[in-house]
Amino acid sequence: MKTFLDTEYVPGQADWIREHVIDGISAPANYKDQAKIDAYIKGKADKAYRDSAFNSTFGELVCISWAHGDGDVHSVSRQLAESEAALLEGFFNQIQDSFPTDPKFDSAEWGIDRHFEWVGFMILSDLRYIWRRAIINNVKIPFPIPVDAKPWDKNPLDIVNYWKCDRYDSASASMNVLCKVFGIEGKEGFDGSMVYDAMLAGEEKKVREYCEDDIRRTRAVYNRLF
Known about the structure:
This protein has helices at residues 15-22, 34-51, 84-97, 107-110, 123-136, 159-163, 175-182, 195-200, 204-225, and strands at residues 2-11, 59-68, 73-77, 117-120, 157-158. It has 226 residues and is an alpha/beta fold. The chain has a single domain, classed as Nucleotidyltransferase, domain 5, CATH 3.30.420. Helix 1 (15-22) crosses helix 2 and helix 7 (175-182) crosses helix 9 (204-225). The chain is globular, with a radius of gyration of 19 Å. The two termini are 13 Å apart.
């Protein structure tokens, strides 16, 4: 049974992270006006800090959503001030509890990890993000996470790599593009670039619903492919 997975993340909230990622930013030497220098540095610093969310050493998870096969979509999420460790613990517990009983396997012998067949868009990044953040937060990982999988592996199955013809073809394998060509309802009015601002505004529910909708879109694309 396939398990569809998606995550949402933001820049790390510790002061040292912002200081680290903006260290060394300066204006070009030909800038002489102090106001322009300050504006340049601020713009570069803000972008560097926001972009640090993509690096799981510095970013933080705010939502993880999943679904087993055609079953219900589940998620765990948090406010920025709440614990990332608690979110990860909730994910590890709930994703196992929500897995349907499969009589083909003796769970006592094989363990529930044998059932996970991961599917997603850039799924390796999602799995590695969860793995790294669990280690950083000292949260026990109760089942193997295939962080060393190859892009061409079938488990986990990365829809981006499955669809694209070559390394120059990534633009045709985005979720929005595939939803459009397959006639599936795509993202409307909200995307991943808006997650951090939504979290700053306390809109945890909006981010969670967006992440859950990405699971539904991923599953619909997968069902067209297989």
